[in-house]
Amino acid sequence: MQRKISIFGATGSIGTNTLDLIRRDSGAYNVVALSGAGNIDLLAKTAIEFRAEIAVTAYEDRLEDLRAALQGSGIEAAAGANAIAEAAARPVDWGMSAIVGAAGLRTSMALAEHGGILALANKESMVCAGDLLLSQCAEHGTTLLPVDSEHSALFQAMNGENRKALRRLILTASGGPFKDFTVEQMRPVTPEQAVKHPKWDMGQRISIDSASMFNKALEVIEAKYLFSCSSDQIEVVVHPQAIVHSMVEYIDNSIIAHMGSPDMRGAIGYALSWPERAENPIERLNFAELGDLSFSRPDETKFPALRLAREALGMGGHAGAIFNAAKEAALDAFIGRRIGFLDMATLVEKTLYNAHLEPTRDSVQSSVSEIFSADAEARRIVDALI
Ligand code: NDP
Ligand code: MG
């Protein structure tokens, strides 16, 4: 029987890697919905190739372009954030949440209602609304499988283990392109330099977040919710070779590490074949040729993002949403060359501690609309600070 699947963020780095795996066994899948934003040609081409029921662009003013590109195919076209949420509500057995940013939260929440598998690449959903998303999954019997490579690694290193025996999660970070830069060398870097990740081939925004270590900061928060542990149980180590994707330490001092080539099709393929394992096209590791694997402590004075993530975790409630929204707004300003690279962390810190956010900061996560209010307020504060 064919498995019903949907992919949100189908035109992005995770989306196209997911489709690459699906394409290799396309008879096994029935594609329900695909979404994209600006890349209409790729969205339409992919929807036609996989005979999707519906293709949705996030941009309402691109609906006519999408309709034209799909003409004669019989595939439905739709546009806008509501249309994406409605498409995500169509029942599937497996749904990939791979829209970038907090814009992916509604999709994750809708996919969590199907009682099947939610493959979660959109880490921002966990950072902004971890409590809400986990309870949505629990309520509907949905299995959440992390796709972020570190969290997939941790999940795999916990297979069959008693979580009570878990002592520490060790998240690896490649260190990004500026690992060996001084603060002064980092000050003038451009978006073009920041986007060049030494190991992973990813979308523009996550690549720049890796250079500032905001990506790892989001991942610390993501890990805290996913594996319900405290922030002091989560350690980050810099591992430039990106071969060890993360590790779990147990109370008997054993450490279980997950290793593999730095290729997202590993984590995506795991979520696709779970609970089984399936062959995939990624490069196999050859230990004799790998050379040294090295590990070191991240420099939190150079990369304040990690400290800020822990502070946000300490605040709880909506602080994750505020942290993420401030980071997204600061990243937009950096990409738009309105601020420098180091200003991103300064803006996030000022926003996290802004008095206007006091009423939302300590509250519990009660609804997605409240999360979005906190998100909007944080973006307003960042814009006012620039
Ligand atoms: P990309 O930028 O490559 O792709 C983003 C996708 O989201 C595209 O399909 C894009 O459409 C769509 N999109 C952009 N803006 C919006 C919006 N406002 N509303 C709806 N859709 C939108 O990102 P990645 O694939 O790199 O990342 C996707 C998610 O996965 C992120 O949350 C990221 O943190 C996470 N992730 C990614 C990894 C990677 O290796 N890339 C690794 C681990 C996690 P279009 O291109 O048509 O404009
Ligand atoms: Mg990651």
| Widest β-sheet, arrangement of strands | 4-3-2-1-5-6-7
- The count of DSSP E runs of length 2 or more, i.e. the number of strands, is 11
Categorize the overall geometry. globular
**Helix run count:** 18
C-alpha end-to-end distance = 54 Å
| Percent helix | 40-55%
Ligands (ions, cofactors included): NADPH dihydro-nicotinamide-adenine-dinucleotide phosphate, magnesium ion
- Report the order of strands and helices: EHEHEHEHEHEHEHEHHHHEEEHHHHHHH
Whole-number radius of gyration? Answer: 20 Å
- SS class: alpha/beta
The biggest beta sheet is recorded as:
7 strands, parallel
Poorly predicted sequence stretches spanning 5 or more consecutive residues: none
Key phrases:
7-stranded parallel sheet, alpha/beta, 386 residues, Rossmann fold, 11 strands, binds magnesium ion, single chain, binds NADPH dihydro-nicotinamide-adenine-dinucleotide phosphate
